Write a sequence for this structure.
């Protein structure tokens, strides 16, 4: 049966690049990013929308890509962690994550960064409680939460290098 | 000071890959023609397998193999780090919920999942034990087949091992103690919840096999695969990409032997990426019930500690019995105690195999013993900080006879924590403070080799078999090389995670790597320095004794040269490189209760101020202070990250985390929805971490291991603060709002 799966053509713009592909109707955006497009920066963990490791931006909205069917993302603009660097240079937020010590094992970091980027786009000068709430859906078992918050604050204040 | 040298906090080595998404964890590696594996499990804990019908599953297009125990060598090989008790796949009987009875390999994940659902297993559910009480009941079924430990007098029980430690005479001490406090405490069953679920791949590799695993101990895995497959070590190549969090849950071999056999049988690469739910069923911490009887003299001096700790381990031992012995051994704490009796048992059950977990059995007894210290202080009307200081071992004191004496000025750590929490200053109504000490023995044996290559341009490659699972070993190792060989950090590459390339390392555990591998790297660098000295003597017509190489420079009697100015002319026209090897051993000590004394102690003091909402039972940490004695912080930012990370992880088992089993031994809160770990919304309102540095550790530059300390005594500190705020003593973890609320309700209705 798996080789007779029903597929549907979709078109995505991922990190600014247009991609046309046929996707299985039951495959998630996460499946398609990782398996079909080989963009493995977006991580897979809980698959129930609780851990945030698979966070991507979908038309400017933060989603758990494990909860979005790929067909639902047809014609959408998707930004993943691979799309955050500018001209081959890490963004101020990415640099701030390194400078403030927000990265340990790194597995949750792609999701944290995408969520934090979106948070800053919506609220350029967030308060600490706003950051905590904005990133509450992104688990970090290394528990770098304090450092992640510092990195977001430093980026907002423009003190990140 | 250069930030990339020792004592600086440069950006993490490997950090760019982690913020750009290019870092490859096992699940991110794509092998050509790989088959996807899905496990088949039963919906109960213990069952007799009557038959397995794979015919429907095999008809699913794309399925290449449905593996059962029947496909394996007979008897099915068993393995384990301590006892060879775990079969490659369930044989005859499942022992816990989630134990695989079959595994499907197919061209796609969809096909593998569909076929796994179509494997028909006829089985009979059997009575099982899920609690310490049930396991110890002589009428209960045995978890382990007694033939697996023939001759063991305990083989007819569910007690895998009983450990007895201590000194002095507790009964004599009890007869003269002014106060005896006795209480029982429970510690919950919690899971590692690394955000990266365990991932395994295997592929035929010429006349050998290649394994990829998110494992902390690649060399140990190599040994087990070699034994099971009958291959020489040189034909088993283990790739161990940096794990996405380990915390002990990725130390030992789990499903790698299964995927190895599947790869050999299909002749194809196979991969198995566990779901988060499957990781819950694969690894957990030992839960425990600890009864402590503590004797005090009226001035607060400790007279004795009498500790009985039953740890509930799982269906297979994994490393859990070592967790029990090593974790309970320092149960009397960092104190001067004239008489100590510790009896600890590893109790088998039909549950997820327990394994190492940050803290390694210490948090369970520490929770009980430190809480009892508070009870004693209250009964004697002595300040809770003061009673600890009065009993605390002084530096050099043999507080555990025949073991390493106290290796730090621990009072400094305690006083610093007390100062940061504002101990003794007035509190707002509804708030309380707690303070606790934690101690853990570092590694008792160890063996690490390192190779360092100084290349012709002065850049450096370090080969180290440590797994960098987030603790930052790569960065610290590069800093050591930068300090010793003068290269800037971005001219240093640290190679790990490939047993065909990197020399042997025993394991990444017990916060050992900075000390053991760090020393091996330091020695490898010193070997290169010696070669540079010889070179400089030859080039400058000097006596070697007049040349010093240190701090990245070559000092001649009349001037100082950068290393490169000796290296280039010394190597000559053909170029080449200098190679240094380093080895660091900590030998076993026969006759020692643990087989070896502590390389160092992790010592921590945690102090908290908490506010309790009497309406809801919700505990808010207003301030959380953690202070660790680290010897020397080679990278202060990383020390803080590990310290705070451990502290927040400790808040998990203290306030919210626990498995809930149903009557059939199934974890009811399986997965991220119903099992909560701390999020950014669960942080203390203020977190202060500090470190004590007296350069008195055995590691490079006086360092000690430090990655677990801040987790050891979170629970007793928080529970003490809750008691201080409300007057209610709670002796079961976690301190969920419901549990606290119930305790408050029971307090107010006499």
């Amino acid at each position: 049966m798996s080789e007779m799966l029903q597929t549907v053509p979709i078109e995505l713009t991922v990190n600014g690049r247009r991609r046309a592909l046929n996707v299985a109707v039951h495959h998630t955006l996460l499946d398609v990013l990782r398996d079909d497009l080989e963009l493995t920066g977006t991580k897979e963990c809980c698959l129930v929308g609780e851990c945030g490791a698979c966070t991507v931006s979908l038309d400017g909205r933060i989603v758990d890509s494990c909860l979005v069917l790929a067909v639902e993302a047809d014609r959408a603009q998707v930004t993943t962690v691979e799309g955050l660097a500018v001209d081959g240079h890490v963004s101020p937020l990415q640099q701030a994550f390194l400078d403030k010590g927000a990265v340990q094992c790194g597995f949750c970091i792609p999701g944290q960064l995408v969520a934090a980027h979106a948070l800053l786009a919506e609220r350029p000068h967030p308060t600490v409680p706003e950051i905590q709430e904005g990133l509450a859906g992104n688990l970090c078992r290394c528990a770098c939460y304090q450092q992640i918050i510092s990195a977001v604050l430093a980026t907002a204040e423009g003190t990140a290098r | 000071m250069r930030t990339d040298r020792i004592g600086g906090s440069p950006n993490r080595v490997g950090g760019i890959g982690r913020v750009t998404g290019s870092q490859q964890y096992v699940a991110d590696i794509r092998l050509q023609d790989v088959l996807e594996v899905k496990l088949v499990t039963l919906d109960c804990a213990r069952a007799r397998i009557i038959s397995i019908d794979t015919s429907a599953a095999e008809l699913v297009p794309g399925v290449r193999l449905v593996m059962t125990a029947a496909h394996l060598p007979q008897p099915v090989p068993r393995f384990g780090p301590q006892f060879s008790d775990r079969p490659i796949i369930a044989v005859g009987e499942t022992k816990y919920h989630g134990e695989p009875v079959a595994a499907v390999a197919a061209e796609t994940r969809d096909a593998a999942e569909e076929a796994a659902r179509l494997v028909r297993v006829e089985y009979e559910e059997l009575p099982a034990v899920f609690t310490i009480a049930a396991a110890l009941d002589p009428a209960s079924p045995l978890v382990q087949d007694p033939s697996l430990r023939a001759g063991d007098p305990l083989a007819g029980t569910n007690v895998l091992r009983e450990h007895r430690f201590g000194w002095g005479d507790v009964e004599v001490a009890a007869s003269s103690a002014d106060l005896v406090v006795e209480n029982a405490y429970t510690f919950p069953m919690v899971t590692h919840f690394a955000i990266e679920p365990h991932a395994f791949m295997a592929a035929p590799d010429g006349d050998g096999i290649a394994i990829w695993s998110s494992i902390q101990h690649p060399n140990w895995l190599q040994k087990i695969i070699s034994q099971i497959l009958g291959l020489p070590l040189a034909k088993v190549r283990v790739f161990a990409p940096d794990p996405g969090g380990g915390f002990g849950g990725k130390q030992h071999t789990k499903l790698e032997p299964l995927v190895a056999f599947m790869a050999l049988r299909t002749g194809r690469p196979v991969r198995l990426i566990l779901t988060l739910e499957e990781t819950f069923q694969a690894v957990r911490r030992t839960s425990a019930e600890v009864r402590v009887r503590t004797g005090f003299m009226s001035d607060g001096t400790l007279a004795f500690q009498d500790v009985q700790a039953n740890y509930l381990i799982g269906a297979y031992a994994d490393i859990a019995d070592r967790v029990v012995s090593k974790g309970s051994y320092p149960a009397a704490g960092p104190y001067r105690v004239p008489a100590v009796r510790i009896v600890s048992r590893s109790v088998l059950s039909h549950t997820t195999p327990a394994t190492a977990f940050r803290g390694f059995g210490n948090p369970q007894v520490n929770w009980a013993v430190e809480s009892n210290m508070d009870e004693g202080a209250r009964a004697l009307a002595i300040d809770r900080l003061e009673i600890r200081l009065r009993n605390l071992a002084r530096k050099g004191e043999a507080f555990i006879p025949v073991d390493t004496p106290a290796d730090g000025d621990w009072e400094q750590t305690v006083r610093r924590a007390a100062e940061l929490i504002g101990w003794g200053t007035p509190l707002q109504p509804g708030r309380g403070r707690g303070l606790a000490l934690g101690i853990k023995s570092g590694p008792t044996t160890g063996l690490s080799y390192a190779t360092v290559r100084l290349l012709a341009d002065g850049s450096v490659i370090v080969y180290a078999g440590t797994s960098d699972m987030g603790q930052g070993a790569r960065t610290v190792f590069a800093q050591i090389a930068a300090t010793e060989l003068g290269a800037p950090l971005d001219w240093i590459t640290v190679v790990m995670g490939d047993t065909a390339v990197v020399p042997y390392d025993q394991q990444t555990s017990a916060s050992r790597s900075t000390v053991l591998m760090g020393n091996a790297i330091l020695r490898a660098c010193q070997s290169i320095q010696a070669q540079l000295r010889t070179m400089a003597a030859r080039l400058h017509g000097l006596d070697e004794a007049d040349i010093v190489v240190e701090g990245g420079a070559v000092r001649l009697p009349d001037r100082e040269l950068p290393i490169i100015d000796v290296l280039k002319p010394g190597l000559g026209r053909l170029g080449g490189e200098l190679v240094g090897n380093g080895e660091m051993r900590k030998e076993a000590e026969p006759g020692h209760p643990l087989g070896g004394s502590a390389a160092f102690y992790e010592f921590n003091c945690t102090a908290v101020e908490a506010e309790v909402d009497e309406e809801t039972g919700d505990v808010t940490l207003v301030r959380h202070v953690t202070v660790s004695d680290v010897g020397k912080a080679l990278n202060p930012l990383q020390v803080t990250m590990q310290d705070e990370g451990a502290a927040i992880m400790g808040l998990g088992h203290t306030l919210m985390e626990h498995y809930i089993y149903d009557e059939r031994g199934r974890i009811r809160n399986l997965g991220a929805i119903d099992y909560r770990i701390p999020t950014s919304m669960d942080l203390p309102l203020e977190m202060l971490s500090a470190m004590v540095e007296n350069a008195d550790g055995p590691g490079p530059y006086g360092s000690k291991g430090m990655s677990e300390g801040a987790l050891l005594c979170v629970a007793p500190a928080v529970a003490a603060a809750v008691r201080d705020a409300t007057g209610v003593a709670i002796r079961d973890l976690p301190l969920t709002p419901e549990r606290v609320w119930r305790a408050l309700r029971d307090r107010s209705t006499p």
User: Anything to note?
Assistant: The first helix of chain B runs from residue 15 to 20. Chain B has three domains: 15-22+446-586, 31-126+196-244+249-282, 287-443+592-748. The CA atoms of residues 205 and 235 of chain B lie 8 Å apart.
